[in-house]
Write a structure and sequence with these properties.
globular; alpha/beta; homodimer; 363 residues
C-alpha cells in the first residue's frame, strides 16, 4: 500500500473519538456472536448497531441473541442504509461472507458513511491477486471517504500470512517458506466437523468436493499472495490443490460422529506459490480427527533458516475474534485506503480497558 | 506513538528517492562492517558515507576496511558535520554505542540534516522508559525535520519485544509473558565469549560484575517497557537482576578458551516487569558454552495460551544486520517522529533488489 517516497504528514482531520469506540456489527451468526460477546467484556468499545438478513434474528434485541441476561438496546435490522444513517459508528465489523463480491454492498455502504471496516471476509485479507480491479476501487473509495478497510482473522489474517511474514524479519535472504497448521478437528464445533467431511465414505467425500459442498480452507491463495507481496516476489502462479481426504486407519469417535476405518477423518488443504518453476511458498492446513499433536509451524529456508512452532497451535475461533478486535486501534490510526496486515503495525492484544489508550491521547 | 483519533493524511512532501536508497554508515566496527557488506549485496541501496572516530580507520577507503577487492570511493571520516553537509543521504545507520546519550550528538546532527535514522543503539529501541525527556526531545526534533528515528536489531528490537508483541495478536487476554533466549556461546565470536566471562573463576566473574567489566545483555529493560507499552500495561516497576554466572560442572573447550569445572561457562541475564506485585513480563537471556539445545522461546499465558519456540534460535549477528536493513523501507514510509518497532509495519525480509519496490512506486 505504501511505497518508497511517500512521506506521510500526520494531521488530525476531524476524528471525534469521544470516550469509546462505536462499533456496528454485520452478521450475528456464531462468529458475530462471539465477537459481540468479547466486545461486551471490554470497556471503551460499544456496539451501536447490528445488521443481519436472517429472518429469525431481525427485530430481536442483540442481547437476546447473545443469550445474556440483559437487553442491549440494539435491535438487529436488515436495513443497512437506514441503520447506517441513524447511528454514529467509528468502525463496522463485517462477519458475513467469504468473498469480496459477497460483502461488497455493505462494505461500500459503510465506506460511504465514513465508517472504517474490519472484516473476516477471507478474500479481503489480500484481495489484490484475485480481484485487482475491485481492490483498486475499494482502495480509492476508502481514500476518498478517509477510512481504512482491513480483512483479517486468525487464518487468513495471521497464522499463515502476518506471522510468517514477521518471521522473515531477521532474514537476509528468504528462499522458501512452508506453513503447516495441524488441527484436531474432533475438538471443533460440529458444523466444522461436518463441513470437512468427517465420517463420510471416500466416494461421498469426492462427490461433495466435485459439487463444492466441501471446499476446504478458504484463504490459502490470499495468504500466499500476501506473503509474496511482503517479500517483493513476483510469483509465476499460485496453485490451489483440491482438498484431499485424510482416511482413518482405525476407528475414532468425535462429538459429531464415529469415523470407521477407511472413511474420512478430515481433510488437507494445500496451496503452492510458484517462482522459477518451484514451489517457494507452501501452505498446508490439515484438520482431522486423528491428529495426535496440534501445532502451527512455520519453516523458512534462507539466511538464516527459521524453524518455528507454536506448540498446541492457536485456537481458531478464539483467535479470529481476538485478531479482529486487536486490529481495530491499528485501523483507526492508519492512513486511509484498503489495508492488509503487512501494512499495519504489529498486532497486539488489547488492554481490557481501551480507555488507557484514549487517556494517553487526551493528555 | 500514534493514538486514537489521530487520522493520518497521506501526502507526498518532497522525498526524492531517485532509484536507490542512499545510506550513511556511522560505525565501522564488526557490526558496521557486517551491515555494509550486506548492503553491497543488494541492488537499490548505496553507501554514500562512512563515519568513525577510530584512528586506524579514518582516512581509509571503506572497501579496504570491508576487505573486499574494490575500493568503494567512500572515505571513512570522523568529521560528522562535514560529511553530512556534502552527501545526500536518505538514511543513516548508527551502529556505535548502546546508550542514547552516547549516540545523541550524531543522532541529532542526522535529524537536523533531514536524514532518517536506524540505529542498533540498544537504549533507543524503547527509550521512553529510561529517558522520557530525551525521548520527547528526539521525537519533537524528528517531527520538525520530517524524519523518522528507529532503534532496532535482533535483540532488543525483535526477539524479545517485536516478536512477543506480535504473538499476543491472537490473544483476547494476556496475563503474563516469558521470553527465553538460550544461546550456545561457544559458537559466537571470541570478543563475545570474553565479554560474558567464559573461563573465569567465579570470584573474578563477580569482581568483573561489580566493576562493570561484565554487564550482561543490554536491552532487557527496554524490551520489557516496549512490551508493556504495546499491551497498554502500566508496570509497578522493571527489575533488572545482576548477571548470574553459569558454572561449568564438567570441562569444556571453546575456540576461545577451556572452561574448567567450577569455572564460569557463561551468564544468565534476567529482568522482570512487575504489575500488581507480580512479575508479568519475564525476559531471560542465557548464553553459555554448555548449552545443548539452542532456542528462542516465547510463552504467553492468557486467552488463549501461546507457546512458541524457534528451534535452534536465531543467529544474533546475522539477525541484527537483517533487522536493521529490513526496517529501512518501513522507516522511509512512516510518519515522522521517534518510532519503535510496535509502531511500524510487520518486519519482513527485503527482496535482494530493492528496486522492485520502487518500480511499483513509479507505476
Amino acid at each position: 500500500m505504501l511505497k518508497f517516497g511517500t512521506r506521510i504528514k500526520r494531521e488530525r482531520v476531524g476524528v471525534n473519538m469521544e470516550n469509546e469506540i462505536k462499533v456496528v456489527l454485520f452478521g450475528v451468526g456464531p462468529l458475530g456472536v462471539a465477537i459481540a460477546k468479547a466486545m461486551l467484556e471490554r470497556k471503551g468499545m460499544k456496539i451501536v448497531g447490528a445488521v443481519d438478513t436472517a429472518k429469525d434474528v431481525v427485530g430481536k434485541d442483540l442481547g437476546k441473541i447473545l443469550e445474556i441476561n440483559n437487553t442491549l438496546g440494539v435491535t438487529v435490522t436488515d436495513d443497512v442504509l437506514g441503520s447506517l444513517s441513524k447511528i454514529k459508528a467509528n468502525v463496522a465489523i463485517i462477519a458475513t461472507k467469504s468473498s469480496v463480491e459477497g460483502i461488497y454492498p455493505e462494505l461500500t455502504m459503510c465506506i460511504k458513511s465514513g465508517i472504517n471496516v474490519v472484516s473476516t471476509c477471507e478474500e479481503l485479507s489480500y484481495p489484490y491477486y484475485k480481484q485487482p480491479q475491485l481492490s483498486a476501487e475499494i482502495d480509492e473509495l476508502a481514500k476518498k471517504h478517509g477510512v481504512v478497510v482491513l480483512g483479517t482473522g486468525i487464518n487468513p489474517g495471521y497464522l499463515m500470512d502476518a506471522l510468517p511474514i514477521t518471521l522473515t524479519g531477521p532474514c537476509l535472504r528468504v528462499d522458501s517458506i512452508r506453513v503447516t497448521r495441524m488441527m484436531d478437528s474432533s475438538k471443533r464445533r460440529i458444523p466444522f466437523q461436518k463441513k470437512i467431511g468427517t465420517g463420510l465414505a471416500p466416494e461421498q467425500f469426492e462427490k461433495n468436493i466435485r459439487e463444492k459442498v466441501i471446499t476446504g480452507h478458504v484463504g490459502l491463495v490470499e495468504s500466499i499472495a500476501h506473503i509474496a507481496a511482503a517479500l517483493g516476489w513476483t510469483l509465476d502462479s499460485i496453485v490451489e490443490f483440491p482438498p484431499e481426504p485424510v482416511i482413518a486407519k482405525k476407528e475414532t469417535t468425535t462429538p459429531y460422529t464415529t469415523v470407521k476405518p477407511g472413511c474420512v477423518a478430515g481433510l488437507k488443504s494445500l496451496a503452492h506459490g510458484i517462482k522459477g518453476g518451484k514451489p517457494v511458498i507452501v501452505l498446508e492446513f490439515i484438520a482431522n480427527a486423528l491428529v495426535e499433536e496440534e501445532y502451527d509451524a512455520i519453516s523458512i529456508e534462507g539466511i538464516p533458516n527459521v524453524n518455528q512452532k507454536i506448540i498446541g497451535g492457536v485456537h481458531g475461533d478464539v483467535g479470529t475474534v481476538a485478531v479482529v478486535l486487536n486490529m481495530i486501534p491499528k485501523v483507526l490510526n492508519a492512513a486511509p485506503g484498503l489495508a492488509t496486515m503487512k501494512d499495519l503495525p504489529l498486532p497486539s492484544a488489547l488492554n481490557e480497558d481501551l480507555r488507557v489508550y484514549l487517556r494517553s491521547y487526551s493528555s
